[in-house]
Amino acid sequence: MPIKRIGIITSGGDAPGMNAALRSVVRTAVTNGIEVYGFMRGYAGILDKDYKPLDYASVGGIMERGGTILRTARVPEFKLPEVRKQAADNIKEAGVEALVIIGGEGSLTGGKLFSEENGIPVVGIPGSIDNDISNTDMCIGVDTCLNTVVEVVQKIKDTATSHERAFIVEVMGRGSGYIALMSSLATGAEAAIIPEIPVDFKSISERIWEERKRGKLNCLIIVAEGAASAYTVARHMENRIGYETRITILGHVQRGGSPTAYDRILASRMGYEAVKSIMDNEFGVMIGLSGRNMVRVPIDKVLSEKRTIDVEVIKLAKILS
Question: Which of 130, 132, 143, 263 is catalytic?
Fold first, then answer.
């Protein structure tokens, strides 16, 4: 029997482009005769029975908005089997036959357990500004985040040059250095400190000091929050690099803002493919980007593999710094 009603949630940390993915899922589903219920605040909305029907008109004008109109929340209690069972009962009571989950690794893990234990068919869409989910070239929100970081860092660099200072900029990335590395490459930073590589403060300091002696007017170090705090980096660097040092922590500004064209298109394609997967009765998969193509990857495979940083990009960033 073809599925007639699906649910959709946005879960975990918000990412620019989630609304575009939501819009795409709803309009693709409605066009194909499938009803859509949107649950508010991720898994919390399922537990609270807080949902509403979504139609073609209700997702109009949301693609350009950052964040998520369904809102999101972290639900630690969803780790408990009995809580997942209650959520599954609520899903079935609402007549929802499959669930689309837009979120990161934690959200996909919850969806996997939800499906295995309670028979709820799920399809995942990767939304994570850290780009830390395996088996997809890019996650929703990454491009917008990087553009935000680059814009802010370029403004900081102007002040760094004017005052001949070193700025240490802390960006998001608890387990992944993708934002730090790529923004470092895009802004010409002297160093990127990331969780994937042990930090050699002595080597970094010596290199920056040599550049300072040659007359370089500014210094920019970008550090991922999971590698070290900006304050720790500053303690290691001050009085060793020849610059007065300042710290900037970008924080949640990286998550917000209108999504870029790239993120809008990526999210729209992923939402469309998610509904196609449901119509093909292919569940337990995440929609990923591989080259130019959308692919359906088993969630088990996604969660069992760790995304790694390209070693060649690390070498490139060092050469160009």
Answer: 130
